[in-house]
Design goal:
alpha+beta; 5 helices; 51% helix; globular; disordered N terminus
Length: 136
């Protein structure tokens, strides 16, 4: 059974994974992939994880911007990916908590992640994770 809601299509749920299609603007897609050969699905998965992981940091750029409320995302590119079902539920709940659509929050998460990459903070997280793994 397929359910469609806006730019999100839930195609199936297999145990702990959920396959979704998220529609983003070309600009958000380019921000995620850097215009290169990076998998958009893998980058979006990382963007959602990064975004939700920063919830407690209280960065000014984290919440969905008030000035964009009421606007719709441009649906230029559909990205199909398989996500952890818990991650997807958490992301849906966060979109609801912020009062925006999942598409809007996914677009925002893509830009947020691109900014984190540009600032080098994602690289630092990877290094920190490697250090924690080596020491534990």
């Amino acid at each position: 059974m397929t359910m469609t809601g806006g730019g999100i299509e839930l195609a199936r749920e297999d145990g702990e994974k959920r396959q979704v299609a998220i529609v983003l603007s070309r600009l958000a897609l380019e921000g995620l992939t850097g215009g290169g050969d990076v998998s958009a699905a893998a980058a979006l998965d990382e963007a959602l994880r990064c975004y939700l992981g920063d919830r407690e940091l209280e960065r000014p750029a984290w919440p969905y911007p008030d000035f964009l409320r009421g606007s719709e995302t441009e649906g230029d590119a559909a990205i199909e990916l398989e996500l952890d079902a818990g991650l997807w539920r958490e992301f849906e709940q966060e979109a609801e908590r912020q009062g925006v659509s999942v598409e809007q929050l996914a677009e925002h998460a893509a830009f947020y992640f691109a900014a984190e990459l540009d600032a080098g903070r994602v690289t630092q997280r990877i290094l920190d994770d490697l250090d924690a793994g080596a020491g534990g």
